[in-house]
Predict the 3D structure of the following.
Amino acid sequence: AQSVSQHNHHVILSEAASLELGCNYSYGGTVNLFWYVQYPGQHLQLLLKYFSGDPLVKGIKGFEAEFIKSKFSFNLRKPSVQWSDTAEYFCAVRLSGGYNKLIFGAGTRLAVHP
Amino acid sequence: KAGVTQTPRYLIKTRGQQVTLSCSPISGHRSVSWYQQTPGQGLQFLFEYFSETQRNKGNFPGRFSGRQFSNSRSEMNVSTLELGDSALYLCASSLADTSYGYTFGSGTRLTVV
């Protein structure tokens, strides 16, 4: 069955540290890829998405992600995190022909300390 | 423009009861998807509706059902509630062109006691 793996369940960083969250999926066909963020007590918000074209995608709040097809990966990065980035981050995949079904990873809880 | 609106925000039900949750998508969005979020299972797809038709369904028992109305508003129903149905139920809407992404509502927190 298709699945999405997020390798880090909990990440703790100090402000200004660099962030990289891993995401791998298992599906050999065409995919659309997403990163969502859920701030404490808030709803899921779209950070960025990849459908086609340049595999390096820039999103909101300084986040970016790189799609590496050969590695089935879509890792999220931010060069310098802030305390306000404390949240849970979800990677999601939409399979070709899957209509609007998203398969989510388990999520990564990020805590940024001042 | 208004976001995705889910009502009610919180519900407490007793085992064996049934519940109906509502989702109003962003104006112009014709696709509505439902997800269940729990600490143990994460975010799991329930079903998706487009133009009043169910296009896709996740691996949930038949107690979970849904429908979509002509104005794109959607409801999901859970019958014969079990303790394990306690979860945050999220609704997401999108345009027919999904390259614009999916917008999620704040969810309905269902507690079954």
User: Anything to note?
Assistant: The two ends of chain A are 41 Å apart (CA to CA). Chain A touches chain B at residues 32, 34, 36, 42-46, 49, 51, 90, 92, 94, 98-107 (CB under 8 Å). The mean pLDDT of chain A is 93. Residues 45 and 63 of chain A are 13 Å apart (CA to CA).
